Amino acid sequence: MGAALRWLTLAILTAYTAFAAGPFVWVATMSVRTTSEIALDHYAWPAVWHWDKFPTAWFKSNYNVYFGNSLIVVLSAVAILTVAGAMAAHCFARYRFRGNRLLYFVIFSAIIFPPQITIIALFQILVQYGLYNSLAGLIAVYVAVQLPLTVYILESFFARIPGDLFDAARIDGYSEWEILWKVSLPIALPAISTTVILNTILLWNEFLYAVVLITDDAKRTLPLGIQRFLGDQLEDVGMIATGLIIAIVPVVLIYAFFSEKLIQGMTAGAVK
Amino acid sequence: MRKLKWVLVSVVLGWSLTASAQVKVTMWSHWAAEKIKRDYVEDAIRRFEAANPGVKIEASWYEKTALYAALKTALRAGTAPDFFYAEPDQFEYMENGLLLDLSSLNWSAIEPWAKEAWSYKGKPYGVPLEAWTVEVYYNRKTLGELGVKVPANLQLDSQGFLDLAKKARAKNATPMSLGVGDRPFPGAHLTHEALLKRLGVQDYDNLLKGKLSWSDPRVVETLTLVKTWVDAGVLPTTFTSLKLGEAHTYFHTKPGAAMFLNGSWYTSRAFNAPDQGGQPVDFPLGIMKFPAIPNAACNECRTIAVGGSYVGNAATKQPKHVLAFLNAFATPEMGNRWLEQVLVQTGIKADPSKISGPHAGYFKELAATSQGAKYYFGIPIQVMQGKPKEVFTQVINNAFPAGTITVDEVVKQMNAAYK
Amino acid sequence: MRVSVDRQPWGAISAFLLPAFTVYVALTAYPVLRTFYNSFHRVLPRKGDELVGFANYAELARDEIFWRAVRNTIFWACASPLAEITIALLLAVALYARIPGMRFFRIAWFTPVLMSYIVVGIIWVWIYNYDWGAANAILRAVGLDGLTRAWLGDPKVALPALVFVTSWMWAGFNMVVLLAALHSLPSEVIEAAELDNCGWAGKLWFVIIPLIKPTILNLLVLSFIGKMKIFDLVWITTKGGPLWSTETVSTYLYKRAFEWTTFDLGYPSTIATVWFVIVLAAVLSLTWLFRQRDRLEY
């Protein structure tokens, strides 16, 4: 590759990276400046780094409550999803029984359902069973929402495990449960970690179900908290920026640590 | 050991019984950001609790859009509070039987037209605490600098108004602050006050209710007039996204505008401390009437609307206490106290001449703009429902003042909305 | 290899499927049916459901706002995937050669996708701000003042502005996937194309695209489905305005269900049902359109 081509590539690289990551860098700089400083020059580099804005946003704007709620909801939902999804996926992949493909298709097809088709009825159902405006209700709904994708990703992975392993295990006298626990799961760990990371990120950011099913301020999840933060008064750009960074940081951390696994998992699904 | 257990049980039982002797009544309300209104209501709560020992009112303060969303779902779910804030445009509460019948209240202390705003099938459902008119607030100093003199009758004519707008723009200032970022009604004030004056009370009512076509030449003439104002740049460039609270500070603090078209409840935000969104100390505030419209049927016509009110939840377990609390508002003292402290009109019968206190001067000025007025009761979105209301909001509140559609488009869309 | 047909541990099978199916039936399948049921009724609080037959559907057929929302959403679901994947493809091909620090770059490109639509929405409302937003600031800096406008306030450009935002979000994701696909191709094929001396564009069109066609089509369908569901971004930026130019089916449904002056849930359910049918039809047509007719052997 000629030198000119190399420079061109570098130029494209830098330009696109700036385009993709630029807005976040901008918000990050705004998160440590006060609103009045920002009003003077929206794009200046911070002169004084107001780190104290973070504790202020955390405590005074109830971010600790929203963050905590998101944590509870997401961790519970992902845990249940992983267990239920792995069990179902293992079953679909390993056992041939009448209705196997039909049942799999029934769950898998739900991936294309638009949320609107269920949201109104979910509202009615949760109200009926007293789960409206509760974290438990939201967790249950989140599990239902992400189940099809989870089962899909896990099933395709489980199906690729060579059958000899299972025959060997069966000959060794393993029960069906032990086969799942000791044979399938350890091998499928990469796929499972992919679904865990994927579900965590998707549910951490989920907004529509939360906004319909949660109205109590004490039970709000983080995306709802941020939306509420856009109050009716002076647009406190500085504080909103701080809040956004608080919301972004966990996701970026997860991604930075697990990026390879995640990309492999997501691309493996899309690349055929 | 067993004896100890029984002692403990009876102690706990006894304690919980005495604790339950205190009745808890829940309330949700708007005005989280409007201190003087909140203070007034919290004061009323304190008085009520003092007069009724054993009753505790638990108030939760919200911002309006969040309140409406929470109420809508809570009422459906049966988890709504015992009484709450509402405005008369919420027909759906009354239509679905969700409100407590307030017929037993002392209605002789309430203005009849305010009671009418809250009546459904002959029964009243809300206590009309707040009433407001659409006013043109202005900065005396700015107008002086622009060389504009407000006439003695407090009403510019439409040419004078247009000139004022042009002069302000020539100096790179915004003539009139207004924003529809988070409310469905402010933008419409510019048009509906003009239409009301041109058509008079009866035809304006017909127009809103679909009995008069929007193609009527008087309507088209008025819309064209308003369009000249819009095209002259009378409103801020950020009109579409400017929020209500921001529109206030846009007018009195930064960047500052010559005028502000707002309901008379302006004071409930502007008289907060400056660092809480209030106007600067010593701000040269003036009030004038909406400009006169040429060939108007009635230039002294203006809109008065019932605003914040309190309604009872039909499913409340404490109807007696709710009715008692709401009834406590229906006295001339409470009405006068509202006028004095909140400086906005009220639906309770009150005597404005008795107002004293630091802001009495302001209130006299406010009363002056309503002198000799002929009222139309309700802003358009309180009078309209369903599709016409939605189209009205999108067209007259948002798009038309933003200058993004023509008069013909407006007429076409509005006429189609009533079909 | 699967267990032979004659020995089915039914106990284990049902136990494995039970949790997933309980949740699925209770919170996915049943709600879908309940929504169908609602669509034929007027659903009000404190009253039983009142059967109204096809009245809701008749009203829906006349509802211009709904059809406007459908057009907007379908436009979005067609335009955004095309933009995302075209940009992603060009970038992937340009960056095909292994670059040092690839891992860092990938994190940077993936970041928009990881953020909640709420976060992205707020950031872009600021970027599109007429007075101080980056979009207009950049235009003014290069002297294109005439092109500045209130991006989210002008009915003619609001929807394209939002499509731009989703393209910005997803281009990075698509690019990473396409790069992985390109790298999974055996290098002899790429080299063979270079030997053939076809131009850069020809190489792209005749060699590379057909080889990774399955991936591209997958991404298109995925992106299409995603945009048909969009709600959060519109809700936090324009809420469907101005003048319904960004109204999507999801925002309109939310408004009819929770913001109009009515408690009726029947009509919104009708909207949901009709939309469900439209989405199903669209996805099925796409997958039929994109079905693999012949596999490329290499």
Written account of the structure:
The complex is a heterotrimer of chains A (272), B (419) and C (298). Chain A has helices at residues 3-31, 35-40, 53-60, 63-94, 100-109, 116-128, 135-158, 163-171, 176-187, 189-204, 208-213, 222-229, 237-270. With 272 residues, chain A is mostly helical. Chain A has a domain at 62-229: MetI-like fold (Orthogonal Bundle), CATH 1.10.3720.10. In chain A, helix 10 packs antiparallel against helix 13 (237-270). Chain B has helices at residues 2-20, 35-51, 64-77, 91-95, 112-117, 140-146, 158-170, 189-208, 217-231, 244-252, 267-270, 319-327, 332-342, 360-369, 380-383, 386-402, 407-417, and strands at residues 23-29, 55-61, 83-86, 119-120, 123-124, 126-127, 131-139, 174-177, 257-263, 285-288, 301-306, 309-312, 374-377. Chain B is of the alpha/beta class and 419 residues long. In chain B, helix 2 runs antiparallel to helix 13 (332-342) and helix 8 (189-208) packs antiparallel against helix 9. In chain B, the strands form three sheets. In chain B, strands 7, 8, 9, 10, 11 and 13 form a six-stranded mixed sheet that branches. In chain B, strands 2-1-3-12-6 form a five-stranded mixed sheet, sandwiched between helices. In chain B, strands 4-5 form a two-stranded antiparallel ribbon. Chain B is built from 17 helices and 13 strands. With 298 residues, chain C is an all-alpha fold. Chain C contains 13 helices and two strands; from the N terminus they run H-E-E-H-H-H-H-H-H-H-H-H-H-H-H. Chain C is globular. The interface between A and C is large, with 92 and 96 residues.
The rough form of chain C would be described as globular
E-strand count of chain B: 13
Order of strands, widest sheet of chain C: 1-2
- Name the quaternary structure: heterotrimer
The largest inter-chain interface, given as chain pair and residues per side, is: A-C, 92 and 96 residues
How would the global form of chain B be characterised?
Answer: globular
Q: How much β-strand is present in the residues of chain B?
A: 5-15%
